[in-house]
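Supplementary Note 3. Input sequence used for the single-chain structure prediction.
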Amino acid sequence: MNFTREYFNSSIFIKNVMTLLPGTLLSQAIPVVFSIILARIYSPDLFGTYFLFTSILGLAIIFSTGKYELAILIPESDKEASRIIGVALTTCLVFSFLLLILCVLFNGIIVALFKTPHFGIWLVLLPFSLFFSAGNEIFYYWHNRRKRYPVLSWSKIIQAFSSSVLQLILGLMILGVTGLIAGLILGQAISFFFLLWKYLRKDSPDFRIRLFTGYRPVARKYLNFPRDIAVASFINEAANQLPNIFMTRYLGQTVVGHYGYAQRTVRTPIGVLSNAFSDVYKSRASEEFITEGNVRRIFLRTMKTLFLVAIGPFTALFLLAPILFSWLFGEAYATSGIYARVFSIPLFFSFVISPLTSTFYIINKTTRYLFVQVASLVLVILALIGAYLLSKDPLVMVIFLAGAITLTNLLALGMLIFYVNRVHNNPVKPLNKPG
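The predicted structure, written as discrete structure tokens, is reproduced below.
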């Protein structure tokens, strides 16, 4: 306890986290509050279609930028970092255009695959959602590099509020799943233009972005991001989104609605501190690696603090989830509460470990991160197939998935501790060591 009190009182890291926290808290609280109302407007099967859309979006967004946005934090020079923005935006534009062509040409095949007859129109709009979402990520990392934490907080608040309000208004107009998906896309667009405006206002005279030109040297220098991190991130996202896709195909949209609603409702509030720690940890760990050649001190401090913060909320979640879901969202979502209770255990470990996974690419251990994500995907696939062959009971499938994710988190934590200590004992040359 003395360690925790001293850490909170003296650490610049925690001071930066607390700068981000109010905005992050509000941005995460908004969807939770609106979910209480939206649950009365949209049925679980409509949420099932919505979660299928967001699952496909989550998979596509990984390669839309080649994960070059993560490299924005790495260079010592702001000028070089601004060139990475150009690389990421160029990649995003090309990928979104190609995806639009695919969605138009293979629209009918994809709709038939997922057994969702009215899903075709939203596939055509998927590339636009992809572009705005990826653009948000790119400029978010730039403002993070520039330590504009209030801008980061406001961007989250703007997207959360605009999306939630629009989903409510469109839902009251009885537009069905149209309200959920259209509200999401418009909220992404509003947040993107806010971050772009802040960049143009504060940085564009000194750090001009170039599209489709002059980006090859920078793209080659950080090729490990699309080669290793993007592949690893895709595998990680596949492990997260595959359950929604698999359940849509074999168990129906209502089951996906309950599962997805449980995931969204639980992950949103517990992600408040996790996201704030993650944003600042990436920045501080990158700086520490540049100056000291290792990240052991900031890594251990962050891990211990996250563990202490997580105990109370996750214990309450395990005990009260079924009661809270029935009370807040209605009896129609009682099943979602049961799923939330099951997932309280793996989400506890995810809360502690997720902010720390950026350590893999900061200390240049990207191939190890890829190994962890491959293991995660394999375990999830085995859990889905095993549960389906065993009983086809949705609850059994959720329990199997919770076990698979828990094992993955423990594997990731063990590898992080091992390599952080190894780098500490044998310091490596940073990617951009001050000269």
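The mean pLDDT is 83. Residues 42-220 form one domain.
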